[in-house]
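Example 4.3 (complexes with small molecules)
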Amino acid sequence: MKCDAMAKKLAVIFLITLIFNQTSALIIPSAIVVAISSMGYLGPKIYCQLKECCSGKWTSPNITGLQLSLQKRVFGQHLVTETVSKAIIGHLNNKSPGKALAFSFNGWTGSGKNFVSKIIAEHLFRKGMDSKYVHQVIATHDFPHQAELKHYKKKLKDLIVRSVKGCPRSLFIFDEMDKMPFGLIDVLKPYLDHHHEVERLDFRKSIFIFLSNTGAGLINQELLTHWKEGKKREEIRIKPLDEALNLNEFNAKTGFWHSSLIEKHLIDYFIPFLPLERSHIKMCAKADLELKGYPVTEEILNRVADEMLYSPEDLKVFSKSGCKKVSSKVDYIML
Ligand SMILES: Nc1ncnc2c1ncn2[C@@H]1O[C@H](COP(=O)(O)OP(=O)(O)OP(=O)(O)O)[C@@H](O)[C@H]1O
Ligand SMILES: *[C@@H]1O[C@H](CO)[C@@H](O)[C@H](O)[C@H]1NC(C)=O
Ligand SMILES: [Mg+2]
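Answer. The structure with adenosine-5'-triphosphate bound is encoded below.
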């Protein structure tokens, strides 16, 4: 506003100079002054055209794209597709959400927890995982030593405060939650809670996603029971899984679950990722073959699926590595 007024004032001066002094000696310097002062006004706009800012195209969410991508690209996770996009839309539509949105993604290896997180990031931020407002924290990489707890606490706090200062709708993804140093996660408590302000900032527009394998055994057991009863996979509801998770594993006093996030109900949604079956392995293989420009035949898909190991030993229903090794198996087979 100030710049705008200044630019106008300078423009007037420029015109007056133009009218009263027809000498080019004065016109040129005043033209330069006007040009520079309007640059100061337009500067941020030009900057945000080129560089990432917390506004406009950089942070406008692509909700239809998110829903579509989750439905089309994520296989065998009907609970995830149903819950995640709804929860995110609800939070985004709320002009002043009561608290930060917090998900816990739980499930077997290779079931799509990182994959879904990436899809979310890509549809909330133009630069996806490369956005400066998206942070992926990997426990064993970023916080490997319990002895450094004090230093880590500060590091984590700084990361969150810095990001939210830059953009209230920041996204934080915590991978390997079960391997976080004991006590570190407690640092997050004030940012996840219903506080109006923490350190003069409002954290309630941010989104947190916690990934772990915690509870995977229970989820698989639930699904196997369901499967043995001859029921369809798509018929399993979130509630029995939620109950199984809440009652058992999360009460065990280890790592993440020891922290007060659970006790204080700071996590809004526990999203169970189901173990993937042979048919899903083939779907992953098809997607990977198409991505790499290879032909897709039933024979190739079966060869990829045959390469995987399945559990339990007697029934062989669930892929032991989910879709995780599919891409490398495809490379190997197509070589
Ligand atoms: N449900 C799924 N639908 C489609 N592709 C999947 C799915 N699950 C996994 N994939 C594919 O497998 C790759 C590995 O999955 P991802 O890294 O998301 O597993 P994860 O659940 O994070 O496993 P971990 O617990 O070992 O970290 C993904 O990049 C994706 O290509
Ligand atoms: C929204 O997401 C969809 C699916 O990923 C994509 O095809 C589309 O180009 C995106 N739209 C914008 C405006 O980025
Ligand atoms: Mg993962």
